[in-house]
Amino acid sequence: MNSASSIYDNLGGAQRLQELVEAFYARVQRHPDLAPLFPADIRPVMEKQFQFLSQFFGGPALFSEAHGHPMMRARHLHVPITEARAEDWLGCMAGALGDIGVEEPLRSFIVARLSGPARHFVNRPDE
Predict the structure, then answer these.
(1) Is 1 in contact with 106 (CB distance < 8 Å)?
(2) pTM, whole model, 2 decimals?
(3) pLDDT tens-digit profile of 78-127?
(4) Which tens digits make up the pLDDT trace of 33-84?
């Protein structure tokens, strides 16, 4: 991991980010608590996730160019996100990073970077 480069560059750019998004949503769609939160046609969600992560990881600002300011918490208020679901989401991301061969310390760095936002999206108590 080159600490002078962005996560986007350390990950390997757009192609590797696309691989990550695909591996991540394959896991999400199999997860019993997360899958019901997503539409049957997951492709538009995947595209927005790719755009957002590109920007969030220091690559091109694709999300803002297409949709304006991210305002991610507000965009997710309609989704019942609990602490447990945030942790499950992070677990799917950690697994997807492993699936595409991202090695340490980059894998843990990415999960840690996503942990704050994932927990910030929590808008419901655990059941």
Answers:
(1) yes
(2) 0.89
(3) 667 889 999 999 999 999 999 999 999 999 999 999 999 899 888 888 87
(4) 999 999 999 999 999 999 999 999 999 998 887 767 766 656 665 667 889 9
Cα–Cα distance, 8 to 117 (Å, whole number): 17
CB 94 within 8 A of CB 111: yes
Domain span holding position 16: 9-120
CATH number at residue 110: 1.10.490.10
- As given in the structure block, the two tokens for residue 32 are 């019993």
The structure tokens listed for 38 are 């997503």
DSSP assignment letter at 104 = T
